[in-house]
Design a protein that fits this description.
Number of domains: 3
Radius of gyration: 36 Å
Shape: flat
Order of helices and strands: EEHEHHHHHHHHHEEHHHHH
Strand content: under 5%
Strand order of the largest sheet: 2-1-3
Largest sheet: 3 strands, antiparallel
């Protein structure tokens, strides 16, 4: 096989004929990695190893071509071994947890693609095998019945089915025996991982407590502790998820092989009420729960780490500000106020632009739908009481623009909108809209219920457009 290594921006390509050459490959990779890891603090490296079959002599590597050459079960096994080698290699070099996590993320994406491809190809192979076996059995049954009689042929077929089912069951058990050590390993590691959740939460709470009273010098090691817990709480579950997904696939593969094999004997199994075995449902469900728990815990811990880290940064910023002189503090406050003022002014400008955007029209009648514009205007008017309290603070520039626009909006709602609705009602009547709908619009206008009139007007306009 050919193993390709990608370390930083350097690349190496090595031919490996046997598993014994793995150490040589890692020595070559170590040389590449050391070029990008002058020290632990300055180490930036991720590994992306791909396994290829030497007889293919093709680039780039293809899961489909490798699976055809080496077999899908063997490919899954080789992939998992290579994946573990990469993580162990990086950890042996004390590579920063960020880069180990990057390697694991790449591996999870590739593993998902590999297992999906394997499942698809294996299903196609099963279908073709079933076609061949069923056709052969039918021909043999017809030949036997013609020579020996139907009863003799039926008994012979039953004996053959029993022997075949015994062989199928034995192969099924062998497949489960091969998966059992992998399942046990994942289950044990998961139990340890789950037991460690309370310790991780306690550790985070302790860091947050110490950070709330720490000085500038004390915050630096706390950030290091946060990085360490983040690295552990991402690396361990990522590896656990990949191993659980592999076990789940191995179990599903063994069950599919068994189900497909006994499908040829469905009639006799049903006739004699023999059981159909499934020893994989519970362990596959267990692997699903492991993947779900690990994914959810990663999300929760990462959210907590980000929250604590943001708190540390805010305290760090506050301590720097407190230690500065009065002029520096004034400058910082002025800069913050300027940013807030600019953001509010940008928001007001965007809302003013939205106020006078042309509303959508209904084809044919060329009349505008008004509900959207009225909602935007009502919302804009809510800024007026906010600006009444502004005084000389950061809202003042934006509120000056609001004040200049409020009168226009109020004039539109009190004068332009009623005129537009009456004009639209007349056009709807001329276009043949139901008189009851047009009269309802006019009645709401007469009563001064503008919002209700707009609602009825838009509904009648849409109905006319659809008609």
């Amino acid at each position: 096989m050919v193993t390709r290594g990608n370390a930083g921006t350097g690349r190496g390509s090595f031919e490996v004929l046997t598993a014994a050459d793995k150490d040589h490959v890692l020595d070559e990779l170590r040389s590449d990695v050391e070029s990008f890891c002058p020290s632990v603090d300055a180490c930036e490296v991720e590994l992306s190893l791909a396994i290829c079959a030497p007889e293919l002599q093709t680039e780039p590597c293809s899961f489909d071509r490798i699976g055809e050459a080496a077999g899908w079960e063997r490919l899954v096994e080789l992939w998992s071994d290579a994946q573990r080698d990469q993580v162990a290699f990086l950890e042996g070099r004390n590579v920063n947890a960020h880069w180990v996590a990057g390697t694991l993320r790449w591996q999870r994406e590739q593993q998902t693609r590999l297992l999906d491809n394997a499942a698809e190809v294996v299903a196609a192979v099963h279908q073709e095998r079933d076609r061949v076996v069923d056709g052969t059995r039918t021909r043999l049954g017809e030949m036997g019945a013609a020579v020996r009689g139907e009863e003799v042929a039926r008994l012979a077929d039953t004996r053959w089915a029993i022997r075949d089912l015994e062989r199928i069951t034995a192969r099924y058990q062998d497949a489960l025996d091969r998966v059992r050590p992998l399942y046990t390993d994942v289950a044990k590691r998961f139990a340890m991982y789950r037991e460690g959740e309370s310790a991780a939460v306690t550790w985070l709470q302790d860091i947050a407590t110490r950070a709330s009273t720490a000085d500038l010098a004390g915050l630096t090691p706390l950030k290091g502790e946060l990085a360490a817990i983040s690295g552990d709480e991402n690396r361990v579950p990522q590896q656990l998820i990949m191993d659980a997904q592999r076990v789940r696939w191995e179990l599903a593969h063994a069950q599919a092989e068994y189900d497909q094999a006994i499908a040829h004997h469905a009639a006799i199994i049903d006739e004699r009420s023999w059981p159909r075995l499934d020893h994989t449902a519970a362990p596959r469900g267990g692997m699903d729960r492991i993947v779900g728990y690990a994914s959810d815990r990663m999300r929760r811990v990462n959210d907590a780490v980000r929250e604590v880290f943001d708190g540390v940064r805010r305290r760090e910023h506050a301590l720097v500000l407190v230690s500065a002189d009065q002029q520096t503090r004034d400058q910082v406050r002025a800069a913050a106020a300027a940013r807030t003022e600019a953001a509010f002014l940008d928001q007001v400008t965007a809302r003013m632009t939205e106020l006078w955007e042309a509303p959508p029209t209904v084809p044919g009648l060329n009349l505008p739908l008004l509900a959207g514009r009225v909602r935007v205007m009502r919302a804009f008017l809510q800024l007026e009481p906010l600006c009444a309290e502004a005084g000389g603070d950061w809202r003042k520039p934006g509120c000056l623009r609001v004040a200049g626009e409020v009168a226009k909006v109020q004039r539109y709602l009190s004068q332009t909108l009623p005129f537009t609705l009456r004009y639209g009602a007349r056009k709807l009547r001329l276009a043949g809209a139901p008189e009851v709908d047009v009269a309802a619009i006019e009645a709401e206008l007469t009563a001064g219920n503008l919002d209700a009139a707009v609602h009825r007007y838009d509904a009648a306009l849409r109905a006319a457009g659809e008609g």
